[in-house]
Structures are given as structure tokens and as C-alpha cells.
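Fold this sequence, please.
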Amino acid sequence: MRSSTRECAPRVSEKRRAPLGVYLATAWLGLCLAAALFGDFLPLPAWNDYDYDFQSSPAFTEGHLLGTDPDGADILSGLVHGARVSLGISFTAVLAGGVIGGLLGVLAAYRRGWVDGVITTYFNVSLSIPTIVLTLVMVAVLATPAVDGSSSGIPRELVLIISLTLVIVPVLGLLARGSALSWAGRDFVMVAESIGMKKRAILWTHIVPNVLPTMMSIGFLAAGIVIVIEGGLAILGAGATPGASWGSMLAKNQSNFTIGPYPTLVPAAVIALTVMALNYFADYFRTKIDDRESRL
């Protein structure tokens, strides 16, 4: 009996759609990025303007969509401006730390010997310094306020970026080193070495492109951790300018939590949603990377 062509033809596998969580996380992070980039074009009062006629106003108050805090500052305006500061500090610190730590980690893994020893020792020593202590010292030394109230040093936001970058470098550096070591032992790298391909070309052609996906996956996780750390530092008095970031909004209103928790819960919810979205991306990309490496 002649078999049907339809039966013999192989079935084309349908393209798997991304989970719903990816779309939700993308929508939330896109909203936060849009607020950070285009917040100045929104018809909102300045984040540090105080409307003394509407102090501790609830949501949907006239002129204040999300209400005001006990000082009369508009909460929605604070969230929009806080997106710029919190995401700016987080993404800048992770990007700078990832670039510096990634390059050092890949260099240590590929050169080995004394280069690996020096770089690995630097990573281990850096990790032994507590993040809170390092940031508090740097803020106290580099961003000390003057007697008249003005800043006599570097802006706090920049000090936070520098200190958090120093924290991220060894974390992502050790990750890049471990990933590079695993890829350096693969067959295609050994074949490239055997045919006389230069080490620099092998590094940039075969190793770095395979290390980058893992770095991106952990980078999302690190960005969420940095946002939480900035909030904790703000509560300790070493964060961004009071009210300028999501974390400093928490610190600013924490003393009034028992009287009216709303101005504190709103930025806390925004931080929680942002961190969950970043963590979801980290898990999703980690799964994709594992599937990719299992096929190589």
C-alpha cells in the first residue's frame, strides 16, 4: 500500500512561545525605563516640591494621582524620578562591574599562571570587605556634607555607583573566570590552538562570546540585588539624596510608617516588583543558557 506523503513528511516543530512571566516582566521593566527616560515630559510636579495644602493625601487626590507623603511631596513624581536614580545606579554599577570583572576574569582564566594568581587574589580580598562597610566609608569620605548643608565632595549617587561597582567586579569576575575555564577546555578551542590560531583571536572569537550569556544572566540578578542594597543603605543614611530614589523614599517616610504606611508601602511595592522582574529574567536566561550548552 502506498503511504501518504502527508504521513511520511516530518512534522515541523512549532516554535515555543516565551512564558507569560517574560511578557509581564518585560512590560514592567519597560514601564520603569520609560518613566526614567521620559519622566520630565509628564505633567507632574517636581519630586522635591512640597504642597503643604495636601500633606499625607490619599491616592486620586486632585493634582496628585498617587497622593502625597507627610511632607506634601507627590508620590508619583517621586517614583518617576526614583526610577531614573535607582535604575541608573543599578544598571551603571552592574555594567561597569561586569565589563571590568568580565575582562579580568577571562584574562585570568586564559593566561593562567601568575596572572591568574594575582587577579584571583584581588577578587578574594575584595569579597572579604563587607558591602555596607565599604559604602559607608566611601560616602563619609568622598561625599561629606559641608557645614552650610551643601555637598563638599562627590555627589552621593556617583559615590554609590563607584562603591557598588567595586563590589560587583569580583563577583562577576569570578563568574567569568569559571565560565571561561570551562569553555577553554572545549574541543573547538583546542582545535583552534592546534591549527595555530593566535591566543587573542581565540579569546575574542571562541571564549568571550560564550561567556557573555552567562554574564548577562547573572547581571539581571545583580541589578536587582543592587537596588535592594541601595534601599538598605538609604535607611542607614548612606543612600541617595533623601527622596531622590526608591530606597531613599523608603528611608524618608519610615518614621511615619505607624501613622500612615501608604507613602512607604508604595515605593516598597515598586522595588519588589522590579526585583522580581529582574530575577525572573535571570532565571529565564539561565534556563536558555543551560539548554544551549547541553546541545554543544
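The chain has ten helices and no strands. The longest helix spans residues 75-111.
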